[in-house]
């Protein structure tokens, strides 16, 4: 059998097995060394090949698809720095637990470390940021090697998917000639084990009954209990948490990415204004908790973290079915490695049901007070940042997906986006919280989730501007709201802003560019809105491709407006609590 | 002493020492965790701080400055994926031996691996692609810690500079509060060792006299000897190689990045059409070498590599003062770790001088034949790719710097850019040969080398389009020639092109975008030339900022024209050699 046929059989066996294990999408960046795999992938009838010239955007685009569909998505590139461009998205996938299959083509062993062109050391090049790395054997067609490559495909998919999901890296050495033999009509046919080569059981972490009993007893003991939900994306889990909350009569603090602020579930116990509430010293004293049960990653709110740190004696349970250690407060008392849904079910059954709870009522009261102040942002007539987020619940349609940028937008969403009964899904890149790759990630999500609204600041928009090309090439509809305060708005809220000497150089960083040019280049509609009427209209008009709505704001006004609102929340909470005394 | 003062003293001592050791430029990407170092850097009167929002472009921009000036340049970013965006440029710096100081801010130890925001594992995150990694101690002001941080600064600079130069990574854990104390006027004053803390000797690799004698004897033995010069950038070395070549009467094969094709040195022995020559089977037979002496990295020419491989018995000396192993032919017989200039001097002294050499004459003859065919590209009236490169020597001014993109442009430069007496410097990213970061690298070079001409294909231009912002923000003049064949032109020369089924999807990859929008956004002049008259005018007009000249070409015509020229070179060589028989 020729080199070409062996190469083809080996790769085809691998691809076949990937597809049988649920991989539907691959993002390929053009290159020479990756030719055999790219061509076999393109040949497979059930694998969708997306081309992305910039590997950084390509990887984020794949991350978005994987995040949106919860299926592993593959990326493929050639040797050299191409592979290094994947690094930011791989890290994000690792920390946000998104299944990603990273395939890099490499020179074969005899062309490594000897100055051959485009040859770098790709062995474990992503360090600890992948769940599994394997240096693949050079392609061969012996039965044992076909078993090996099929096993590896099954294992790669299973490893990427297993909780905590994450990236897996396989490095493929390919020798020239690189052209596969696509003439064989049986290329994707396996002579043995025609279905999957093997299965990997879908398992989960759990604890024994005695431990469930103890935990149920514990949570029943405390009246001042809080459930805190960070970023998570499982509608089923959301419902089970709400049920547990109901039995315990605990308030449920819902991060904007917890999927608990909007949806058809019972909302009465959801606390969505905690970020503003916990800036009030009075509230922090009155609302002291005795017990905290945490689900999901750490919420974005800094006041919430400071509140938790203020009471180091609080019993704090962290439930993590992924077996991680997500406690930047360093104050947790019980780390519970157990499937979150099972935990909720078991405790809902075993805990002593309460009929009412003053602590919950107090939270509900101050939450209402805080919200009634925060919504006053809607009264501001000039364009401003908070009001954008306060209007989303009303303006966006049922089943919309919101993708929110890091830095200020996620914080403004936290501050101004309040509960509603629309089924909306809200996603962001909260693994490593970077501003990079945001457009590409959102477009990846948009591949399988429509309509999609991306909200970003101008620096984040700039960072991944080229990512917009996917919308043009693949006709992906997306509405992008760019909040343009000409620079790094978040720093105006930080202590840096009190040191004017180097502030504008190092932190303000105005770009002074007119994004309309770029939007036009990528075939999009660009709308710079001048007032709220135009904003609503721009949002509500349906789009079949790229639409960018730019809202110009002012960094200084923005800080002032935020602080005014937060101060009035604190003032009103003070009043309310003193009235009750 | 407060945390703030200790933080400031520690960082200021570090920065002071960097500057004393020759660091003049730092590229900072905005972020919060890096605040203390960014602010102290901005405060130092002798350190130039450049801001670049996109860390990928930032790192390439620094790489360009370091490449252009041969001085170490520093980059600084915040924690998280920001640091991962540096990876492509770090790899390029490692393989192309460019001194780069990579400073990443990190969360302190107590905030690592516990789900804190923007915290990833930054320890050795660039793997084997840096020369040295150090996890820095948390800032303290004890005398021993100031000695430590000053020593580390000296060592980092020395390590980055030492042959082979390369990147060094220091990871700095910073605790809040992050604001340094800039009120102290003595911040950059050292109480001890006011000059440099210490020096590191500037040493080089050498061999003993006996070995120089043996080598001189060896090279004198062979008449059919070839000197092959790959990418290198040292005018002094160029002259010494020419002198050695003269004594030995060996032809000097000069890669376009060897700095030997243009300049005021004696050019008679420089062979610049070898890429076309060595496509001729006749030439490959007639020109069989007995000895090869190689300097610099491996040249770009594939025909040259195949020619070397055709004669595995050739004695092949590789001279590498950096102690690497740059031999993808795997046929070298003598790896000589010796400073290249010293090697040339010693052998020039010790070797037996020849008066003439038939082998040289034959190379000179076929070189003339080949060139007289290749320059016929100038007769083609329609816009085409080869003619762009054939005109550069004439159109560009003395002291111009050319930065050439990878993929086709470097190969076309090899094919069509012939010797001339102008002092022009030609640079490219030939460490890992990526198409990423090319605009930013060129702009970095342009900071200290004017006028600068960048020549890239459309995919390379697209890959780093955002890098153009540095030209706008820092008013860096640059002339960019974009050869737009709407996709990956190089693949039309490769075997992939014979398999049309998936070709356009996977390799053609047309972007169909009009770059003029982007050029306008970044404040540049955009000129789409329609004929050669417009092309010359566009090149010759001086510019004080960004100028982009777009030349539209056609991938299929391009392959045909190249092949026609190469075939006529082979035909004419055949004729010449038969005439002589």
UniProtKB/TrEMBL annotation, chains A, B:
UniProt KW Transferase keyword? yes
**SUPFAM superfamilies per the record?**
Thiamin diphosphate-binding fold (THDP-binding)
- Any binding details for the cofactor? Binds 1 thiamine pyrophosphate per subunit.
Q: Name one GO molecular function term.
A: 2-succinyl-5-enolpyruvyl-6-hydroxy-3-cyclohexene-1-carboxylic-acid synthase activity
Q: Which Gene3D superfamilies match?
A: 3.40.50.970, TPP-binding domain
Q: Which Pfam families match?
A: TPP_enzyme_C, TPP_enzyme_M_2, TPP_enzyme_N
Q: Which InterPro entries match?
A: MenaQ_synth_MenD, MenD_middle, THDP-binding, Thiamin_PyroP_enz_TPP-bd_dom, TPP_enzyme_TPP-bd
Give start and end of each Thiamine pyrophosphate enzyme TPP-binding domain.
419-549
What does the record give as EC number? Answer: 2.2.1.9
User: Signal sequence: where?
Assistant: none
Pathway(s) this gene product operates in, as recorded in its UniProt entry = Quinol/quinone metabolism; menaquinone biosynthesis; Quinol/quinone metabolism; 1,4-dihydroxy-2-naphthoate biosynthesis; 1,4-dihydroxy-2-naphthoate from chorismate: step 2/7
Manganese listed as a keyword: yes
What keywords appear on the UniProt entry?
Answer: Magnesium, Manganese, Menaquinone biosynthesis, Metal-binding, Thiamine pyrophosphate, Transferase
Q: Which reaction does it catalyse?
A: isochorismate + 2-oxoglutarate + H(+) = 5-enolpyruvoyl-6-hydroxy-2-succinyl-cyclohex-3-ene-1-carboxylate + CO2
CDD domains per the record?
TPP_PYR_MenD, TPP_SHCHC_synthase
Indicate the segments forming the Thiamine pyrophosphate enzyme N-terminal TPP-binding domain, all copies. 12-125
Q: Where is the Menaquinone biosynthesis protein MenD middle domain?
A: 221-404
Tell me its cofactors.
Answer: thiamine diphosphate; Mg(2+); Mn(2+)
Task: Return the similarity comment.
Answer: Belongs to the TPP enzyme family. MenD subfamily.
**Subunit composition and interactions:** Homodimer.
Function summary: Catalyzes the thiamine diphosphate-dependent decarboxylation of 2-oxoglutarate and the subsequent addition of the resulting succinic semialdehyde-thiamine pyrophosphate anion to isochorismate to yield 2-succinyl-5-enolpyruvyl-6-hydroxy-3-cyclohexene-1-carboxylate (SEPHCHC).
- Family annotation (HAMAP family): MenD (MF_01659)
Question: What's this protein's name?
Answer: 2-succinyl-5-enolpyruvyl-6-hydroxy-3-cyclohexene-1-carboxylate synthase
- Gene source species: Cytobacillus stercorigallinarum
Gene name, please? menD
């Amino acid at each position: 059998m020729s080199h070409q046929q062996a190469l083809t059989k080996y790769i085809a066996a691998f691809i076949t097995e990937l597809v049988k294990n649920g991989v539907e999408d691959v993002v390929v960046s053009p290159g020479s060394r990756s030719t055999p795999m790219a061509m076999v992938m393109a040949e497979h009838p059930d694998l969708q090949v997306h081309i992305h010239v910039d590997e950084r955007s390509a990887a984020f685009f794949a991350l978005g698809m994987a995040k949106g569909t919860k299926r592993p998505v593959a990326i493929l590139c050639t040797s050299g720095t191409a592979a290094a461009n994947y690094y930011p998205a791989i890290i994000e996938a690792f920390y946000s637990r998104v299944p990603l299959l990273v395939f890099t083509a490499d020179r074969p062993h005899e062309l490594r470390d000897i100055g051959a062109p485009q040859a770098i050391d790709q062995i474990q090049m992503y360090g600890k940021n992948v769940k599994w790395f394997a240096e693949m054997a050079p392609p061969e067609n012996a039965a044992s090697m076909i078993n090996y490559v099929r096993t590896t495909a099954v294992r790669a998919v299973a490893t990427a998917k297993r909780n905590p999901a994450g990236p897996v890296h396989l490095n493929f050495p390919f020798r020239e000639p690189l052209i596969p033999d696509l003439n064989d009509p049986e290329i994707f046919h396996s002579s043995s084990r025609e279905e999957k080569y093997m299965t990997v059981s879908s398992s989960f972490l759990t604890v024994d009954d005695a431990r469930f009993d103890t935990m149920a007893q514990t949570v029943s003991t405390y009246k001042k209990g809080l459930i805190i939900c960070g970023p998570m994306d499982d509608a089923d889990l959301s419902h089970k948490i709400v049920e547990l909350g109901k039995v315990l009569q605990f308030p449920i603090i819902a991060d904007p990415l917890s999927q608990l602020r909007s949806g058809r579930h019972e909302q009465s116990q959801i606390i969505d204004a905690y970020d503003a509430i916990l800036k009030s010293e009075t509230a922090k004293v009155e609302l002291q908790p005795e017990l905290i049960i945490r689900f999901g990653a750490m919420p974005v709110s800094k006041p919430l973290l400071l509140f938790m740190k203020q009471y180091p004696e609080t019993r704090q349970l962290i439930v993590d079915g992924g077996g991680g250690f997500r406690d930047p407060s360093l104050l947790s008392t019980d780390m519970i490695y157990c499937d979150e849904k099972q935990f909720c079910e078991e405790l809902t059954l075993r805990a002593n049901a309460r009929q009412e709870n003053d602590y919950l009522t107090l939270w509900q009261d101050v939450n209402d007070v805080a919200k009634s102040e925060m919504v006053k942002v809607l009264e501001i007539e000039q364009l401003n940042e908070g009001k954008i987020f306060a209007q989303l619940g009303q303006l966006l349609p049922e089943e919309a997906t919101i993708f929110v940028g890091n830095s200020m937008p996620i914080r403004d969403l936290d501050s101004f986006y309040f509960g509603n009964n629309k089924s909306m899904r809200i996603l962001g890149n909260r693994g490593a919280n970077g501003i990079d790759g945001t457009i590409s990630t959102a477009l990846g999500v948009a591949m399988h989730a429509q309509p999609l609204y991306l909200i970003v600041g101008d620096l984040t928009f700039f960072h991944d501007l080229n990512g917009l090309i996917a919308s043009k090439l693949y006709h992906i509809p997306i509405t992008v709201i760019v909040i343009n305060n000409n620079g790094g708005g978040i720093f105006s809220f930080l202590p840096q802003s009190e040191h004017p000497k180097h502030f504008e150089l190092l932190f303000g960083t105005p770009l002074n560019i007119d994004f309309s040019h770029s939007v036009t280049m990528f075939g999009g509609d660009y709308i710079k809105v001048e007032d709220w009427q135009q904003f609503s209209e721009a949002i509500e008009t349906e789009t079949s491709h790229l639409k960018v709505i730019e809202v110009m704001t002012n960094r200084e006004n923005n800080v002032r407006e935020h602080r005014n609102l937060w101060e009035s929340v604190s003032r009103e909470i003070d009043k309310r609590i003193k009235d009750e005394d």
